[in-house]
């Protein structure tokens, strides 16, 4: 029987990519499948947490579990609105979604016609940074962020941990084989606010999820 060591957690998880519509047929997105976020939701629920999974259009299925409530959104703005609305019910949050950084400035109700030119530009604007917004709240839940990087992984992760106001930041090198998008495994280094970091081995995303939950519980019991 799985120990119910997460039973005091009311955990909000974001997962998957977001899709930023340009017209009725086209959108901007990224390669996230949602698998890491689903693994976190599933493991936390099996360990007794009450989980709200706010997710973009994922290609990875969520296995049914009584402890997981799903909330499907599409765009970064919708994910921001859902997180903001539901956050007060939660005492922990893992923001794992690969939120699009930019969205089309204007949505065209009519399909954009191709022109005679050989190039086409689509003007994009920044989306709200959900993690930074949660991290800046005066009373925030225990907050875990992710960082997918291709270079300067350590330095970028540390900078993000402090700038976005997280308690923990999980960094993964998506240029490394077996780590990152659309694979079953991940190799994550967890950075903590006291300056320490824990290098987890390359393992399945389900095992990574368990290890992250273990570290969260340990920090939580120490009062962060
Ligand atoms: O800045 P960067 O996208 O690398 O940060 C990654 C972390 O921030 C992830 O935890 C991701 O879910 C979160 N994030 C967010 N909203 C954004 C961009 C990133 O919550 N608009």
Written description of the protein model:
GO terms for molecular function: FMN binding; phosphopantothenate--cysteine ligase activity; phosphopantothenoylcysteine decarboxylase activity. Its cofactor is FMN. This is Coenzyme A biosynthesis bifunctional protein CoaBC. The chain has 224 residues and is an alpha/beta fold. The chain has helices spanning 35-46, 76-86, 130-135, 153-163, 205-221, and strands spanning 10-15, 20-21, 27-28, 50-55, 68-72, 92-95, 102-104, 124-126, 142-149, 168-173, 185-186, 188-192, 197-199, 203-204. The strands form four sheets. It has an eight-stranded mixed sheet, sandwiched between helices. Strands 2-3 form a two-stranded antiparallel ribbon. The chain starts with 9 loop residues before the first strand and ends with a helix. The model has no long low-confidence stretch (mean pLDDT 95). The site of cytidine-5'-monophosphate has 15 residues, from helix 3 and strand 9.
């Amino acid at each position: 029987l799985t120990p119910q060591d997460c039973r005091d957690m009311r955990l909000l998880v974001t997962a998957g990519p977001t899709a930023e519509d340009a017209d009725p047929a086209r959108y901007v997105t990224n390669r996230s499948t949602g698998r890491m976020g689903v693994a976190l939701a599933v493991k936390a629920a099996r360990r007794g947490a009450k989980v709200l999974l706010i997710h973009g259009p994922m290609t990875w299925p969520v296995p049914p579990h009584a402890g997981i409530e799903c909330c499907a959104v599409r765009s970064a703005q919708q994910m921001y609105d859902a997180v903001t609305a539901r956050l007060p019910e939660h005492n922990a949050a893992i923001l794992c979604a690969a939120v699009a950084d930019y969205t089309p400035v204007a949505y065209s109700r009519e399909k954009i016609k191709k022109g005679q030119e050989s190039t086409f530009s689509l003007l994009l604007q920044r989306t709200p940074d959900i993690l930074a917004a949660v991290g800046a709240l005066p009373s925030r839940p225990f907050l875990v962020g992710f960082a997918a990087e291709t270079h300067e992984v350590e330095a970028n992760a540390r900078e993000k941990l402090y700038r976005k106001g997280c308690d923990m930041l999980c960094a993964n090198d998506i240029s490394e084989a077996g780590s990152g998008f659309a694979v079953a495994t991940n190799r994550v280094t967890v950075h903590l606010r006291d300056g320490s970091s824990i290098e987890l081995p390359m393992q399945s995303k389900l095992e990574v999820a368990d290890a992250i939950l273990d570290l969260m519980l340990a920090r939580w019991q120490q009062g962060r």
